[in-house]
Write a structure and sequence with these properties.
two-stranded antiparallel ribbon, 8-stranded parallel beta barrel, about 350 residues, TIM Barrel, about 40% helix, binds beta-D-mannopyranose
Length: about 350
């Protein structure tokens, strides 16, 4: 009985703390957006160009500018299956420690989730079966199993606490790039209604498991050309706090035409999404970007910066620097042809890092 009473007393207070920290974080992100754009990088301290498994302090970004990204993005794929390491070999224990470190340095964390295909057992890109979303929704053949997957995510999120045991609020950006058809939740494989039901199920179940310290980001993909297209699968104002835009530069050489193409595409997306975010009082973010096979030595100041100028972008996230795959390196690293330009970019008072 006594324990029950203590439990009953604790429950609302933990919930309350989670709620207020989440609100505080949203306010802090809003405030930060008035100061500039936070630089972000996927898996920044987990591994980098030609290195992995170091002590959690190393960072390709830090190697170049002696500062960490203010936003770090991490990937949950395979956590749903109860594995110890994610799709890119990152241990979830290390990830948890990295979240604490990033929080301690006043930075933020965002999670993506390339959830495996529950019907075929293959990865998120396996679209051989077109009915995966339907199978996880209530009444579907995989509905119960999917809840177990969500339980595993919930347990991980609940373990993200600071030294005092307080939940660390983090951003969760599931079911991304839904305007394409390369993931099993892509637009050819579910209706807008089913897609929204997938979101609702995810959020509801995590909440049921006590996860109240998540800030949700909607990130439908690149090349957004109309508000209608952006909102077609929008999970709703109650759920979403962050409205994301994506855009990559592939094989940018530094030629004017390349630069203008990228800048034009990204600005078009921001032209559509920025007014929507403002009207709905949402945070605007460049949730995935970067340069692939990029030899433009001035990409950061001459392409990336002009693509965001004039929009209240809160943060940008460059995708990962894979250890041994030069085609999967989107951020900066020592020795990259744009290293000097990245240093200039980082000196811009409106680009925010963390010490
Ligand atoms: C994708 C690619 C994959 C990676 C996945 C999750 O965009 O970078 O190589 O496994 O993200 O991080």
């Amino acid at each position: 009985m006594r324990y029950l009473l203590i439990f009953a007393f604790l429950l609302p207070s933990v919930w309350g703390i989670a709620q207020s920290t989440t609100k505080e974080m949203v306010n802090a992100l809003r405030e930060s957006a008035t100061q500039g754009v936070m630089y972000g990088h996927h898996d920044d301290t987990m591994y980098g160009y030609r290195w992995k498994d170091e002590n959690g302090e190393r960072s390709d970004t830090k190697d170049v500018v002696d500062m960490y990204p203010a936003m770090m993005s991490f990937e949950l794929c395979r956590l749903e299956k109860g594995l110890e390491r994610n799709i890119d070999g990152v241990s979830f224990d290390k990830m948890r420690a990295a979240v604490r470190q990033q929080h301690a340095r006043g930075g933020y964390v965002m999670f993506s989730w390339h959830a495996d295909n529950i019907l075929t057992g293959k990865n998120a890109w396996d679209v051989s079966n077109r009915r995966v979303v339907q199978s996880v929704l209530p009444g579907g053949s995989k509905a119960d199993e999917f809840l177990v997957w969500l339980d595993r995510l919930a347990a991980f999120f609940m373990s993200l606490t600071d030294e005092q045991g307080k939940p660390i609020p983090v951003i969760f950006r599931p079911w991304h790039e839904c305007n394409g058809s390369w993931f099993w939740w892509g637009k050819d494989f579910c209706t807008p209604r089913e897609y929204k039901a997938l979101w609702a199920l995810t959020v509801k179940h995590l909440k049921r498991k006590g996860v109240n310290h998540l800030i949700y980001a909607y990130s439908p993909g690149s090349n957004i050309t109309s508000q209608q297209a952006y909102l077609e699968r929008y999970p709703g104002n109650k759920t979403i706090a962050i409205m994301g835009v994506e855009g990559y530069a592939i094989k940018a050489t530094g030629a004017l035409a390349d630069r203008q193409k990228f800048i034009g595409r990204v600005r078009k997306s921001f032209d559509v999404v920025a007014p929507l975010a403002q009207k709905r009082k949402k945070i605007l973010a460049f949730t995935e970007t970067g340069m692939k096979q990029n030899t433009d030595p001035q990409w950061w100041t001459q392409t990336l910066l002009p693509s965001m100028e004039g929009y209240p972008v809160c943060f940008l996230v460059t995708w990962r620097n894979a250890t041994n795959d030069d085609n999967e390196c989107y951020g900066i690293y020592k020795g990259h042809p744009s290293e000097e330009d990245f240093k200039r970019f980082a000196q811009n008072p409106h680009i925010i890092f963390r010490k």
